[in-house]
Amino acid sequence: xxxxxxxxxxxxxxxxxxxxxxxSDSTFSxxxxxxxxxxxxxxxxxxxxxxxxxxxTYYLDSVKGRFTISRDNAKNTLYLQMNSLKPxxxxxxxxxxxxxxxxxxxxxxSS
Length: 111
Fold this sequence. Notes:
This protein is mostly beta strands and 111 residues long. It contains no helices and ten strands. It is globular, with a radius of gyration of 13 Å.
């Protein structure tokens, strides 16, 4: 499945963004999905997981209570609602299944 992220941008500390990941076909509904990020000069960091049915979610400790992962299988779309953003959240954000990754969307948190 092809994955295309969108919704990134420049936001001030404390602000919010909602990332979207559009999948190319309905096989999306059978996949567990993740959000993964990579900060400048650093390695990949897993951020959040959601199972195929949307009933189970998990988060990196540093984003718990601020980020919410969700999905709409009817629209073949994965979301990441990010609130109370911090400069340390600055990174390229990727959506990923077990086999496929998107191209990423850049999130920059800066005043």
